[in-house]
Amino acid sequence: MIEVVKSYQDGKKIFRLKNEKISVDVSNFGGTILSIIVKDKEGKQQDVVLGYDHLEDYAHYDGYLGALVGRVANRIAKGTFTLNDKTYQLAINNGPNCLHGGVKGFSYRVFDDEIKNDQLILHYFSPDGEEHFPGNLDLYATYTLDEDALVINYHATSDQDTLINITNHSYFNLNGCPSSIDNHTLQVQAQYFACSDEDGLVTGALRDVDHTPFDFREEKTIGSQIHRDDEQLTIGHGYDHPFIFDSETNQVKLYSPLTGIELTVSTTLPQAQLYSANYLDGRLGKNGKPMNARDALAIETQYMPDSIHKERNSKTILRKGEVYDETTSYRFKVRS
Ligand code: BGC
């Protein structure tokens, strides 16, 4: 069932997608996931994503809590790129680079909405030149519940060649409130991760996870790894790195022994930025509770950041007439 639970005068809305197993609040403001409520091992309801009490806070703060991020998630080196012999200059909004689509990326836009066949379809038309990207781009983000899973499909087309890299930036804490994720266990099907520089930009180097604190091929607690002495962990202030997937389904599993809740992320995308919320600064979130660094894990499925500079035949180029079509699901279970 999907219903509108709140409408604002400026066109913003909050929708609730709900079945017996899961209840998800989503706003057409930035396609933002406001809450995901599932039952824990005692049958108690837990909200497993960080966020704010008021929708205005999502417009006011950075951090991209729960937001859909685009047109190009993550960093583009020096905010510039060349496509079809034309050079584009984007906003520099994160050190020397462009982050998360520029000053007013998709996370800060109001989407059109439609409820159809038990799906919430959010649509955003991004005009040619918006945030200095070429091409009129139509993005459809479709949110569906599939039993105990939230499934998001992204579908985009453009009337000119352009760049695209969409993600969702939910901060998961399966304890049910902002609190250290040291107790969570993590499993990631990734033999390699991408190294980053001091500004969080990928360097282009991939590193084998073997014998590093990035090796989550077998399930481990985050707390047993994140405090280890490692140059990349120091540079990132924790995890803030792309993990390159070896498998095509169920690539990431996160589990809290406290609540028994397990999240499995499955995606058509080739990697995810795992970000241990290193820059959360004690700002107040839901129920007035402070949100601090390492109080959550964001699992941002996406293509390689800065792919336009780092990869040949970048998959982040969306050609005129082609379709960008990617799906990520978030499945919640209680471990017995
Ligand atoms: C980036 C972080 C950044 C965070 C919030 C993540 O995707 O990798 O470095 O601080 O988003 O903007």
| Unreliable sequence segments | none
Distance between the termini: 28 Å
What is the CATH class name? Mainly Beta
**Overall geometry:** globular
The assigned structural class equals mainly beta
Number of helices: 4
Number of strands: 30
- Integer-rounded radius of gyration: 19 Å
| Mean of residue pLDDT values | 98
CATH topology: Beta-galactosidase, Chain A, domain 5
| Ligands, deduplicated | beta-D-glucopyranose
Helix content range of the residues, please? Answer: under 10%
Widest sheet, order of strands: 11-12-13-14-30-24-23-18-21
Largest sheet: 9 strands, antiparallel
Number of domains: 1
Report the β-strand fraction as a percent range: 35-45%
Active site: 169 (proton donor), 300 (proton acceptor)
Protein name: Aldose 1-epimerase
Pathway: Carbohydrate metabolism; hexose metabolism
Binding site for beta-D-galactose: 74-75, 169-171, 240
Quick structural gist:
This protein is mainly beta and 336 residues long. Helix content is 6%, strand content 44%.
